[in-house]
Every structure is written in C-alpha cells, then in structure tokens.
Amino acid sequence: MSYPLLSLAIWIPIFAGLLVLATGSDRNAPMARVIALCGAILGLLVTFPLYSGFDSSTSAMQFVELVPWIPRFNINYHLGVDGISMLFVILNSFITVMVVLAGWQVVENKVAQYNAAFLIMSGLMNGIFSALDGMLFYVFFEASLIPLYLIIGVWGGPNRVYAAIKFFLYTLLGSLLFLVALLYLFIQSGGSFSILDWHQLPIAMGAQIWIFLAFLIAFAVKVPMFPVHTWLPDAHVEAPTGGSVVLAAIGLKLGAYGFLRFSLPIAPDASQELAGLVIALSLIAVVYIGFVALVQADMKKLVAYSSISHMGFVTLGFFMFSAMGIEGALVQMISHGFVSGAMFLCIGVLYDRMHSRQIADYGGVVSGLPATSGFVGEFMVIMGAVKFNFWIAFAAASTMIVGAAYTLWMYKRVIFGDVANDHVRELNDINGREFLILALLALCVLGMGLYPQPFTEVMHASVNDLLRHVAITKIQ
Amino acid sequence: MEMQKLYLLVALAPLFGAAVAGLLCRVIPRWLGHTVTIAGVAVSFIGSVLVFQDVMAGNTFNGPVYTWMTTGDYSFHVGFLIDSLTATMMLVVTFVSLMVHIYTIGYMHEDPGYNRFFSYISLFTFSMLMLVMSNNFMQLFFGWEAVGLVSYLLIGFWYTRPTAIFANMKAFLVNRVGDFGFILGIGLVLAHFGSLDYATVFAKAPEFANTTINIWGAADWSLMTVVCICLFIGAMGKSAQVPLHVWLPDSMEGPTPISALIHAATMVTAGIFMVSRMSPLFEMSTTALSFVLVIGAITALFMGFLGIIQNDIKRVVAYSTLSQLGYMTVALGASAYSVAVFHLMTHAFFKALLFLGAGSVIIGMHHDQDMRNMGGLWKYMPFTWITSLLGSLALIGTPFFAGFYSKDSIIEAVAASHIPGAGFAYFAVLAGVFVTAFYSFRMYFLVFHGEERFGKAHHDEHTGDHDDEEVSHDHHHGLAPGQKPHESPWVVTLPLVLLAIPSVLIGYVAIEPLLYGGYFEGVIHIDKVAHPVMEELAHEFHGPLAMVAHAFKTAPFWLALSGVVVAWFFYMKRPDIPAAIQRRFSGINAILENKYFFDKINETVFAGGARLLGRGLWRGGDVAVIDGFIVNGSAKVVGWMAAVVRYFQTGYVYHYAFTMIIGLLLLLTLWVRV
User: Fold this and answer.
1) Which is it for the CA torsion B368, B369, B373, B377, positive or negative?
2) Residue B142 contacts A, CB cutoff 8 Å
C-alpha cells in the first residue's frame, strides 16, 4: 500500500497554512513566508507521483481512499482521481507555489494571514478535485469560498467590500440549489452520497431536467457563464494579484469540472436535451464578452472578461459530446491556468513601461498563439466544432480576431496610454523572483503547446468512458 | 535516417541561434549575437543545398518527427514532407535570410536592440522553415501563426514610434481575419477527411468531388469549393490580397532588413506556397480558382497604381510587392502553380535586392526615406546604384532577366486559361506591366538620377499616408545641409551583389527544368482536362533564348519599355508634367492618395463598429441590465422588503395587540359568513 497521496495533497497545505497562521503578527513575516513556501513546495511534490503512477489505460478512479466519515448519513471520506481530475490537482498545487512566490515582497500587511489563506484554499481545492463523495465535495466546494472571500475583502482594492460580497452571494446562490440536488440524489439512490453510485442511478427525464438545471446554475456561476458572470470582473479588479491568479487559474475551473463530474454523467439525457442552451450561452460568452473586453480600460477587467470568453470555449467543448471537444476543453482549462496566471502576474510589472517592454510583448500576445498551450485548446475546440456545426465553429473562431484585437489594443494602450490602476504600481522593475515565476509559467505554456500529448494521453480513457456513459440513456 | 537528421538540423539551427541571441540579448556582446545567428542560418542554408541535391537525386521524404497529440480517432503529428516544392522554398528562405542577416550587421549597427533583432529574424527563419517543411495542416497552421507573430514583433521593433505600434497591431489583426477563414477551412478538411496529413487528404480528395454541404439556407455548396475558398482567405491575409492587403504598406514601419526578408521575399509568399501545396484540392473547384484569379488580378493592377503616387522609397517597393503577389495569385488561379512558385522564387531575389538597395539608400541618406529629397545618388553610391538598376530591370520583366521569364509565363498562362474571370485577369496583368515599369523607373530616376535635392533644409512634411502624423526624430533626420550621401559598408553591399546575381540569371537557368522538366511531377497536381494551361505553355516553349527572341514581338515588352520611357520623360525631362496631371485629375489623385479608402472604411466601420458594439453591450448588457437591474436590483428589492417587513416586528406591545384585534375581526367576519 502506497502513501495516501490525495490526502497529503489536501492536508499538507492546510496544515502548513495553520502553521503559518501560528506565526502571528507581521514581526515574524520572513518566517511566515518561508514556512508558506516550504508548505507549498511540499504540497506540490506529493502530487507528482499522481502523474508518474497514473495508469492511463483505465478510466477507473485511482489513488482511492475510503474512510467512513458520518455513518449516520452514509457520508464517507472518499477520494480518488481519474484522467479528468488528476491534472487539476497538480495544476492547483503548482499555482499555489507561484502565488506564494508572487506575494513575497508585494504583500507586507498581515503576511501570515495572507499566505495561510492561500495555502488553506489550495488544500480545499485539491479536495474538490479529488472528492468522490457528494457531501465531501460540497463541504470543500463551500469552504473554499471563505479564504477567497477574505483575500478579496482584506487585501483587495478600494471597492473590495462590494466585490467580495457580490462574489460570495453570487456563488452561494448557485451552490444552495446544488445542495438541493445533492439531497434529492441522496434520497433517490436509497441513501448514498457516492458520486460514482449516482452515475449509475436511473432517473426519469423530468427529474433529470431539474437536476441538470440546479447543477447548471451552480456551475454556471462558478465558470462563470453568461449571464451570471458579472461578479468576476469586479472580483478580479479588487483582488490582490495572487487572488486574481488563483481565482482565474483554479477558481473558474471548479465549475467546469463540475459539469464533467456531475451534470454529464448523472443527467446524461437532460445534458443532451439542453446542450443547445449551454452551447448558445457559451457562444454568447465567447462573442459578446469578446466585444465587451474590447472596450475595457482597466487591464484586470479586460483579462477578467477574456477569462470569461476563454471559459466559453470550455463549456462549448464539453457540450459537443466529442472526444476532441472535451479534451480540447480540458487542455484549454489547464492552459488557461498557466496563461491567466502569467497574465495577472504580468499586469503587476507591466505598468513600469520601458523596462518591462519585453514582458509586455510576450505577456500581451501569449494568449492564443501557436506553439503555446492557449492555442492547442482553441484549435481542438474549433476543429471539433466544425464537425459539429459549421456556424457554431464560425462564431467560436471569431474569437481569433476579437481576442487578438482586445489583447493587442490593451497592449498598445499600456505602452502609450495613461496608467489607470494604482494598487499594482507597488511593483517596480522585474526582478529575479518575478523572472523565475514568469519563466516557469512560460515554460509550461510553451511545453504544453509544443508537445500536448503527455497531457492528453492521460485523459483518453476517462473521456472516452464519459462519452460512452453519456450516450446511454438513464431513463427506465 | 541520415537525411532525417539533416532536415532537423536545417530547421533547428536558426532556432538555436535565436534562443542564444534572444535569451541572452542583454548579456552577450554584439559580435557574438550576430555570429551565432548567422552561423545558424548558414548551417541551415548549406543543409538546404544538400537537401536540394538529395531531392534532385530523386529522394523525397514524408514522415512524422513526433506525435503531437492524439484525441478521439484523430492523431496529429509534427512531421516533414521533403519534395521539390519544399526544397525550392527551403533554398529561397535560407538564402535570402542569410543575406539579410549579413546585411543587418551594417543596417542596425547603431541600434540598441541589435541582439534582439538578430534573435527575431532567426526565429522567423525557423518558423518559416517549419511552415514550408510541414507534412500536415496542423503544423502548417502553427508555422503560419508563428511567422505572423514574428512579423508583428518586427514591425513594432521600434516601439517608441506610435506609427510602428499601430502598424504592427493592424498587421496582426488583418492577418487574423485571414486565419479565421483558414482555420475553418482546416476544420472542414478534418471533419470530412478525418485527417490533417497532406498525403491522406490528397489521396482521399477525389472521393469528395461531388460532395455538397449545406452551409446556408437551401443552397448546397460543393465541399471542395467551400474548403478551398476558406483556405484561400488565409492566403489572402498572409499574401496581402485585396481586401486584406491593408497591413503590408504599413508594415514598412519595421526596419528595412525585415521588409526585405518577411514582407517581400518569404513570409508574404506563404499563401502562394500554401495554395500550390494544396493544388490537388484547388484543382477540384473551378469556382474557387476563378475566385483566386479575380482577387489576384485586382491586386496586381490596383495596387500597382498606388505605387505611382508614393514618395516614400520603401512604400513604392511595398506596393510593388503587393502587385507582384497579385501576379503570383493570378498564376495560381490559372492553374499554373509551378509558374507561381517560379515567380515567387525570382521575386524573392529581386525584391529582396530592391528592398536592401532601398535600405542602403536610406543609410546613405541618414534615414531620410523621402524620394523628393534624393536625386543623383549614382555618383555617391555606385554599388547600390548598379544593383538597384539590375533589380528594377528584373522587376519590370526586361528580357533575359529573371523577372522576365516568370512574369511572361504568368501572362501566357492567363492568356491560355479559359475559366471565368480569365479575360479580366489577362487585361489586368497586361496593364500591370506598364504600371510596374512606370513606378519602378520613376523611383529609380528620382533616387539615382536628376538634380541632387538632398542636403537642403527640406520640408518636414511626412510623406503620404501615415495614420498618425507624429514624426519621430530619432529615425528620421536626413542629411544636414552640405552633407553628401556615402556608400554603405561592405556588409551591406555584399548581399546586394550576391542577390543581384540570381536576380539576373535565375530565370534563364531555372525556367526549363522548373516549368517544363517535370520538376514538380507528383507534387503539384493539375487536372489536365479541365485546366490544360501548362500543356499549352509547354507546347509554345522552345527554350529560354527563343523566349527572349520572341519577347520583342509581344505586347508586354513594348508596354514595359513605354513605361520606362514615360517615367524618364516625366521625371527626367519634364518634371512639371506629373504635378500638372495631379492637379488636373485631382479626383483620381485623391482616391489614390487615400488608397481607395480601404483604411478609412476599416477604421470607421470595423474598428469603430466593434468598439461601439462592445461599449453598447457592456454599458447596456453588463452594467445596466445584469448588474444594475438584476443583481443590484435584487439587492434593492431585498432591502425594500426588509424595510417593509420591519414594521411587523416593531417590538411595541400595542402594535401587536392592534394587529391581533384586526386579525381576529377579519377571521370572525369570514367565519360568520360561512
């Protein structure tokens, strides 16, 4: 029996976070930073065996841990990953290291609390990606809101309170319906919270539609999809750089992941039935949001809108029900993690114009260029879409023009325009630490663009199994 | 196996140079920066020569290097297809690139971004090689985008100039419009053929000859027509065909070496190369070929007109490039793919020569690009003068020069073509010959002959068509009064001489094997029944010297000659005439000055429209409806409700008592009624 890797990936960051919290006031800030970094790196290291030990020939859950938690309601501490979730655990742990590094000199106020919030959030998010018990998932899902709420509300910009409350209420609204759906499934399945049991549960069409809609609202808010996206620009503008990075790189992926883990396999018939709705909303996100992004004057807002547009590609890819679409969407998700992380980190240094000129160059055009990861996902989704419907592909591909327009226009305005935002001015010139972070992210982006095979090959079995599953009706 | 390593070496050597010069650009000295990149490209050039010899010996290659990705039933590879077309392109790309690398030592020697520039042009060489060596659509598209990226970086190389930043953004976006069509075309190929490998797709193509798809309403389109037009839209962006040509003249904001390498000799010909590569597909749709033909003809003629009124030396050459790209496109439309590739090759040499010559003049003039301030330079810059003259003669199609063989073949091919639009195209390419000769020699006379106009306190009016009228003084100072221009250093003149040689000779040497010797056998596929153009050309061809002899009896020669004579008369003999004509036909002049209003339309309709739409959606949708009405509105409703409900819990006993009595009364009333 090997180590309980998933538990380690969840609890190492959380305990490290508590340890950091224990260092107390800002007098111990250097120590807090070192402990936080060690915890984050250790948390990342334990996720590597997940990839190296992963058996990509099976779609079954791997690294499974099953311990009863609340036997009264048959709730279990049930963990496991498959080809869909495994990469996100690693991505999340990686981004945590980046964020701790990124906040090294920038955050000087309540250092211990800041780092602790990120570490605890990292652990909770790993929990979300590896939970196989509905209630466990829900607990992690809700608990992860709290650190992010605090990060925005405490270390955010001038309008942080509005943004934090908006963010919290928006997501809470969605997740309450999600809870109702979970309880319904618990009763229908005769008292099981196991997500895997629910995958096999026959459900009538009417009920499937309701379940699907409840899931849709919960996940659509998280993704976020049009028209429940307006919390994201506010949250990004007010969040500190690290908060923006985690929110964009991981936070948005939770909702998309939910579609694959809950909506599609639990309500396959409703998914097929309502695919048109989701596709329409996704295309609106891609096109409408693209145009909205064009006229944004604030860079963070612009990147936030571009994130919504990119996530539109993800949901579009899911609901075409083809291997290329889903894998393209997953690649897009991982890549967006790297790219948006890099973008928000770049924004920190962009304002200082002359010295950071090259950073601006690369950062500005990195999204959606060839041989970068951003392009792989887009390429796959568009390829999949042409097969599905020419005009859907047409609308989706228009992002190639609009996306380039807003990115390059932003870049042009940054170089020659006025500085709009003050709280990122704290960063001066690019230093060794920032260079290291950006270089690491750039390596990931390039590597994934030049050779995506290692990323996609672990997905095949799980994605194909999911597609087979969705194709079989659950109505009896 | 041995050759496969060589292919990799050819592609990766420039990448290595680019990586060293780029990543260490602030660390390594200048001599190391240019040595490592030039060495990389030189290795690549020598490798290309070896590959070319190997291909001539009959060895071709088609195979993967590594599996890029597999998904579902599809697998994508990175791989090479080495055949005569690839080998030709490799030679052209690496040779011109090598010349430009050497030239850059002289041209950029004062520039603070020296190593960065070398890094970019080597990176470009790598990307272009990946594009031409690809054996599948995916890698083609990636190379396609990568050259676009490097082009973007290089146009904006002098990033302190607002015009440069505007130009590079424009170039990228216009190219993206093309790519938009291109990726849809590739998507259609994948959706119907199930593969992106050239060999598989071309082998399957005949099965789809009669396949129709329903794109819009009830009309059924031939699949091949839709695919080819989508792919060609990509070519229109990269190869700057009307109406996606608008970026190329503005790209002249970049340093001159890249204008020669990217915006004349190699990258802009990627579209021509791509269509030639796709000949098995294009041959199946006469509709698509007609479309190609007409677009090419419009570009060839109307962009030539614009060259006449330019005063900026680089812009004349830029419009000339547009016009020549139009010629190549016309050849593609006429199913004379090999002729298009032939013109691509000759054009690469003489246009690179003309650009580098113009760059040498610009150095001599201390970065003044206005031809009205030049004149009589032949005395001071002998190498530049002679080589530019040779380049101009090649461009206008003087018999025996390289451009003559390729351009005359294009005109012949269009004359032999009978697809719809061929009549118009024939007129356009013929008229274009006169226009080409006129603007080329207008430039030549204005620059090298006539009165010496430099060194005067010249009017600082910015020439022609900058969208932003701000003049940057760092790069635009010109000669001080009394100062004389000087010949450029040897690193500049050597590439000029080396490019002048093929500009003169390559046509004579290459025409017979390239067009009629079965060189592209099995590479370029032509439907001999539907489009028998090359057959007819072969029938009339009796050797390169006979072609020269025959030329004196044909219209193109006399048109070119009259263009030169008219240019001489207007700009040497009677310089007052052009001004008079401009005044007399001020309406036409205004249209030309405004470049047919393409820029204005793009800026107001597309750019302005997109901004307006974005602002409307944002203010109307996000801010007003979603946030204002729904989100904050529901918060307000909650607040209002709470304010109302508050009155039910005042905490005063007499309020509660009063409510209870009222309630009791109401209940009693109901009760008693029943």
Assistant:
1) positive
2) yes
Q: Look at A327 and B71 and tell me if their CB atoms are within 8 Å.
A: yes
Please compute the mean of the pLDDT values over residues B445-471 and round it to a whole number: 60
**Which residues of chain A have a CB within 8 Å of the CB of B180?**
397-398, 400-401
Query: Is residue B470 scored above 80 in pLDDT?
Result: no
Per-residue pLDDT tens over the stretch B237-276: 999 888 888 888 888 888 888 888 888 888 888 999 999 9
Residue B69, chain A, CB below 8 Å: the answer is yes
| B74 contacts in chain A (CB < 8 Å) | 324
Interface of A with B in 29-88 (CB under 8 A): none
Residue A313: enclosing H or E segment and its boundaries?
Answer: helix A299-318
B588 contact partners, CB below 8 Å, separation of at least 6: none
Residue B129 in this model has a pLDDT that exceeds 90 = yes
CA B505 to chain centre: 26
Q: What is the DSSP track for B539-559?
A: HH---HHHHHHHHTTSHHHHH
Coil, helix or strand at residue A298: coil
Residue burial B356-372, b: 16+ Cβ < 10 Å; e: rest: bbbbbbbbbbbbbbbbe
CA distance A184 to chain B (A): 28
- Whole-model pTM: value is 0.87
Give buried/exposed letters for A177-186 (b at 16+ CB in 10 A, else e).
bbbebbeebb
| Nearest chain B residue (CA) to A301 | B618
* Identity of the residue in A358, A451, A456 whose CB atom sits nearest the CB atom of B70: A456
For residue range B595-640, list pLDDT tens digits in order. Answer: 787 888 888 888 888 888 888 888 877 887 887 777 787 878 888 8
* B420 upstream amide cis, omega within 30 of 0: no
Higher-pLDDT residue of A318 and A426 is A318
Distance CA A255, CA A216 (A): 9
